[in-house]
Request: fold
Amino acid sequence: MPVFGPVRSRRLGLSLGLDIVPAKYCTCNCVYCESGKTTKLSAAPAPYTTVDEILPELRSRLTDVTPEWLTFSGAGEPTLNSNIGDIIRAIKSEFTIPVCVLTNGMLLHRPEVRKAIMHADRVVPTYSTAKPETFARLMHPHADITHDMHTEGLIRFSREYEGELQIEIMIVKDVNDTMEEMEAVKCVLSDIRYSAVYCNTVYRPPAFDVRPVDDAALAHLSKVFDRG
Reply:
């Protein structure tokens, strides 16, 4: 069954979070994940939650709150739900609240996944490194997912998607916290149409023993992406 919970962030305002996969079913086992270690590592979407399950519960929740966004997020990778496209279309046909998808972007190399989230008003993929060796250290992806697939999927999606695309970069101390790393990411993003880049670090207890960068380092690294 779907799980609903408030999600607050600088980019979403007040958002009602929709978790449409079982907790910690994910394409990766990211070192910085605030939801703990992945319990089921998968690269194959499956019908974990259906429209008929999520809409009645969503209608009930929206009698009590009026969020600014309905956000696919939670403790697992939402694009692993093969019904996500049907769920997004059903939500948008019934409600006027905009829909956002927070994703690690690992399945964007699959045409059916890109098509499924095309109707979201905003998509926020994570792209934290342009280096395969750093990608392996940060993400611990499923064996069927490579860094090249991750990069190509993001580029393809940006060229097809007509909504608002924002990029999130997770910066971990002593892993990808150098100007060289950020310059490499910027080079990849030069091929991508996006509206904003958000540089974040480890604020909540992570899945693995990793550390955040301090505020000064975060501000310094994020300047790489200034467009002014």
